[in-house]
Amino acid sequence: MKKTVLLFILAVAASLGFAQGPNGSGTYYQNADGKKGSALKTALYGIISKKTSGVGYSYDGLLTNYKKTDKRADGYLRDWYAPSNKYEIGGPKENHQYSAEGDAYNREHLVPQSWFGSGDPKSDIIQVVPTDGYVNNRRSNYPLADVKSATYTSKDGCKLGSCATPGYTGTVFEPLPDTKGDIARIYFYMATRYENLVSNWDGATASIVFAGNKYPAFNEWYLKMLFEWSKNDPIDDVEIARNNAVYGDEDGYVQKNRNPFVDYPGLEQYIWGNCKDVAFSYDNYQQPEYTDDDVDVSGGGSEQGGGNEQGGNEQGGGNEQGGEIPSDATIALNNVFFNCSYNGSIDKKNAEDLVGTQNGITVTYSLGGSGSNRYCNDSQIRLYQNNTLTVSVGQGTITKIEFELAESSDKTLSASTGTMDDLVWTGNASKVVFSVDSGSGHIKIKNIKVTVSVPSGIRPFFDNPRSGFQIYNLNGQRVRGYDKGIYIINGKKIIIN
Question: What whole-number distance in Å separates Cα of residue 106 and Cα of residue 95?
Fold first, then answer.
């Protein structure tokens, strides 16, 4: 009997070839074996998106699970933006009431929730990490990139300012050097884990980063930067331990999936880089060497178009923050749009503006006078006396704004310019500031519908990421409107006179 059992065990071992993936992953990646490029990305999607029975994604559960994934050696929480902080995991300082660094921490979506809405990405612990609340608020929903000229620098060195990375010049947020590689590999994970959704991520500033397609998923300038970040900040033991904790062990699981870009250093090159024509081996993996030109988005399903023509370093039109060609939009004023975690009243000590952008339209919700109240949750904001709500566009003019209230009110709105007729503003302005009439009380605002007029010479055409008809400038950047010039449309150069 013992001999029979032994023979059976040997037979099973032989059938598996004693194959073992890295970091104790065993045969987890077996179904991706032999795949290349975009096909490898799709195979990995099938693996890491599969849920084990009983495993769910819980936003509230993140606070408990950080004890497994983000506990430092000294017992305190790992703060991804402010490592000098000493926060107790799950302690009283996890809240949204802060006026300065070190007051509280919260849950940061490295890929902002305003870009994708709801669903699993909102609670995916691989990309939702603990950060200082004040610094996170300054990040807002700006893309993560290297900063050229900082307008804000945190005490630990995070920066907000103009982009230094060739291909974009708008406002970006730069994380700390020793987290850039971690974040790059999380972005690779997000484009892979949510391959079925990523082509529709077009909220707020998402189109600056994502190309509106399944593959390559990223705009070329951003993919090159992620490669650079991943190369300069290699995988370390902390990152491996976090990845293992997310998958789980005999003490229980957190999410029961893995980030393959942590398990296989340089895996991004097998999908988007110079190794994308090389077959992936899950149990005999060959880590590629980095070269001076690692990203190769030509062919293999790339929809980027023009690549590096005109030097590849000039900012193209239509994609920078505040510079996107505006289009009509109905904007839900809630914590998703403003990329914050508030779910009610905002502490009066927190004077930071809430800022969100959609369709080239920026909305700023400001505290106003000292001692004022503010309120934001998942369905509304409340405009109190002294608060201001500013609606602006970087190009063109706003001609009409219609307010939809969450609840009727006897309060009225006033505007800095134009004409208010009950809940409808009309005029011709690039910026309008709204406030509520004096006295106690507030107005609960659910949505605003904004009508804009684009500048003369710019055709009011906007590509639809769901239609497959997309426009890129010669730098390979996706644009939402166009002027005269040469563009890449569906992979072909088109001259627009």
Answer: 6
The single residue listed with the structure tokens 């106003």 is: 368
Contacts of 154 (CB under 8 A, 6+ apart): 81, 82, 101, 132, 135, 138
38: part of which helix (H) or strand (E)? helix 37-48
Question: Does a cis peptide bond (omega within 30 degrees of 0) precede residue 130?
Answer: no
pLDDT in single tens digits along all 497 residues of the chain: 444 444 443 444 444 444 589 999 999 999 999 999 999 999 999 999 988 767 778 888 898 899 999 999 999 999 999 999 999 887 667 766 788 999 999 999 999 998 998 889 999 999 999 999 999 999 999 999 999 999 999 999 999 999 999 889 889 999 999 999 999 999 999 999 999 999 989 776 888 999 989 999 999 999 999 999 999 999 999 999 999 999 986 567 789 999 999 999 999 999 999 999 999 999 999 999 876 566 665 443 333 333 333 233 333 333 333 346 788 899 999 988 887 888 899 887 777 788 888 888 889 998 876 667 899 998 999 999 888 999 998 778 999 999 999 999 989 999 998 999 999 999 998 899 999 987 678 999 999 999 998 754 444 344 444 334 456 665 555 655 555 566 666 555 565 65
Burial class (CB in 10 A: 0-12, 13-18, 19+), 255: buried
| Burial class (CB within 10 angstroms; exposed 0-12, middle 13-18, buried 19+) of 1 | exposed
List the beta strands (DSSP E) in 110-231. Answer: 128-132, 147-153, 159-163, 171-174
What single-letter amino acid sits at 163? Answer: C
| Token pair recorded at residue 487 | 């563009």
**94 DSSP assignment:** B
End-to-end CA distance of the chain: 84
**Do the beta carbons of residue 233 and residue 181 sit within 8 Å?**
yes
DSSP, res 295: B
Q: What does the alpha-carbon distance between residue 196 and residue 471 come to, in Å, rounded to a whole number?
A: 21
3-state class (DSSP) for residue 227: helix
CA gap 369, 387 in Å, rounded? 7
Round the CA-based radius of gyration of the chain to a whole number and report it: 24
* 428 token code pair: 């011709």
Concatenated DSSP letters for 424-458? EEEEEESEEEEEEPSSS-EEEEEEEEEEEEPPTTS
